[in-house]
Amino acid sequence: MNEPIVNLATFAAMSPDAGLRAALQKSRADIIGEISASGIKGRGGAGFPVGVKWNLCAATRGTQKYVVCNADEGEPGTFKDRAILRAHANLVFEGMTIGAFAVGAREGILYLRAEYTYLRPELEAVLAKRRAAKFLGENVCGKQGFNFDIRIQLGAGAYVCGEETALIESLEGHRGEPRNRPPFPVDTGFLGRPTVVNNVETLAWVACILQKGGAWFKTTGTDKSTGLKILSISGDCARPGVYEFPFGVTVAKLLETVGAPDAKAVQIGGASGHCLPSSEFGRAIAYEDAATGGSIIVFGQQRDMLEVAANFLEFFVEESCGQCTPCRIGNARLREGVELLSEGRCSMRYLQELCALGETMQAASKCGLGQSSPNAFLSIVKHFKDEIMGRVSVASH
Amino acid sequence: MLVTERERLREEITALADRHGRQRSALIPILQEIQRGHLQISDYAMQVVADLLDIHPVEVFSVVSFYSFLDEKPKGRFIIRLCRTISCDMAGKAAVARQLENDLGIGFGETTPCGRFTLEWANCIGMCDQGPALLVNDQVHARVTPEKVHEILAACRRVFGIYAQEQKEEHAV
Questions:
Q1: Domain-wise residue ranges, chain B
Q2: Average pLDDT in the B119-135 region?
Q3: pLDDT for res B172
Q4: Least CB-CB distance to B69: which of A156, A241, A311?
Q5: Alpha carbon of B147: minimum distance to chain A alpha carbons (Å)
Q6: Which residues, including other chains, have CB under 8 Å from residue A158's CB and lie 6 or more apart?
Q7: What is the band of B168 on the pLDDT scale with cuts at 50, 70, 90?
Q8: Residue B3 confidence (pLDDT)
Q9: Is residue A27 part of a domain?
């Protein structure tokens, strides 16, 4: 059996806890300044600037604040956070500790998805070691008055809990239904207290930035998408795995690296992302172009794009929390539409109605899940009309 | 349920509530432990949890019914969750699914009559580079083939120490 490919060279080159030690020598404003200077944006997919988020949380009053690490990695095609937690959990916890110091939090929670329960023992062991080495607990690293500890809470199997307000609902013991925003978690988060929620990868980069400096981070990537990005690449390619690329890398370059010279299409950003046909492989992976939280799925020439769309819609029908109508009903209607298409019984007019429905869902759904759920369907319809329309179904013969 | 069983369950849940605390945020950790120990969260268990946390039982039920890893109906001792999302699908999940159904004699969403296995679909379990993948309770198995399905199930059956008997049941099917 081939060993899985995991390329996390930059994380591996970091010296342990140097970022945290550097941070504890700085003022809180300077730490956030360094993060802002790096230009780092949230690695989970939404791409919110980390410096802004931390600044908002740091500016709130009150002593009871929380730092939450979002390890509810559920986006289809994403497995980079699993790889990071396996190989570099220390870096993630270091990032959480830096965040806690910067915003003034005393408690950290790692929200680990239920499907990753098997990671819990090793993560608890890492936490125990950090406590023993005084990287957690009272007076962290000898810094008087800085008390911080991290606990792990398991999810219970719900994709929507990757959305930060749904995650907080789940932490509080409720159904994982997203909240209206504002108020944002940075002022009204876990138990109504100011809360910073960051992705696993984001927190690992934070620790790197504090060690190497914001300027170092900016040397890679594009103007609007600074730094490196960890990508999880799977599907029809010779070398699927976890890779580190600078932002701005083209899709074509990715395909060359993973060994997929003859790809038909690539799904960027998982089920909630967009499907690019081969004519658009020149596009760049970046927040301002082809944005992804880390999921890249390659489709070979033999793949039926309608089946791909059906698989993604099935996913959303299952994972919609059911709270708002556009997402709950819309995805079920789109899935029915895909069935019609596969039976070859969908008129152009009805397909246009389905696309209009998709656009309504993008505009009217309450949270990111619903808003992005029709993306894959719409992009497949846009780029592969000839393939999906006018099918002669087997049953009609 | 016998009165003594109920009392035992109540005592157990009370101990869980004492450990996790009786605030609302302890609800899911408590439910997870009940699920793990009893393979379900029964109506009575939900009632007890609601009493202890001072919330309405419907609140507890709404949480149990929301999350796919919590269940009010009894599950098997081993819950097999096969990933059906796109990368595992393309890597050949259909053949693995068929073999699981054949070897267990049940369909997806069902539990064997002996109460030992439950077969379910999972949405992306984050093993897309090594599909098809499945979870057996907490443990992950990657690059599963129809042939490996048998090994995985046999390893589960050895836990019961009734390997021979189970084999006979299989042939009867």
A1: 3-66, 78-172
A2: 96
A3: 45
A4: A156
A5: 15
A6: A166, A170, A176, A319, A321, B66, B67, B68
A7: very low
A8: 78
A9: yes
Task: Give residue-wise pLDDT tens across range A36-66.
Answer: 999 999 999 889 999 999 999 999 998 899 9
B24–A5: do the CB atoms touch at under 8 Å? Answer: no
Q: Are residues A295 and A309 in the same domain?
A: no
Are residue A250 and residue A232 in the same domain, yes or no? yes
Residue A223 domain flag? no
Architecture of domain B78-172: 3-Layer(aba) Sandwich (3.40)
Query: For position A392, what pLDDT does the model report?
Result: 84
Give the lowest-confidence range in A180-184, B14-18, B43-47, B57-61: A180-184
Number of structural domains in chain A: 3
Q: Do A75 and B125 lie within an 8 Å CB cutoff?
A: no
Report field, pTM of the whole predicted structure over 0.80: yes
Measured in angstroms, the CA of A235 and the nearest CA of chain B are apart by: 5
Q: What is the CATH number of the domain that holds A233?
A: 3.10.20.600
CB of A87 within 8 Å of a chain B CB? The answer is no
Verify that A269 and A233 share a domain, yes or no. yes
Task: For A322, name the nearest residue in chain B, comparing CA atoms only.
Answer: B66
Q: Is the CB of A174 inside 8 Å of chain B's CB atoms?
A: yes
Same domain flag for A58 and A139: yes
Query: Containing domain of residue A337, as a range?
Result: 305-393
Give A233-292 pLDDT, tens digit per residue. 999 999 999 999 999 999 999 999 999 999 999 999 999 999 999 999 999 999 999 999
pLDDT per residue over A309-357, tens digit each? 999 999 999 999 999 999 999 999 999 999 999 999 999 999 999 999 9
Nearest CB to A79 within list B63, B69, B127 = B127
* Per-residue pLDDT tens over the stretch A92-120: 999 999 999 999 999 999 999 999 999 99
Q: Smallest Cβ distance to B139: which of A118, A157, A159?
A: A118
Query: Do the domain assignments include residue A222?
Result: no
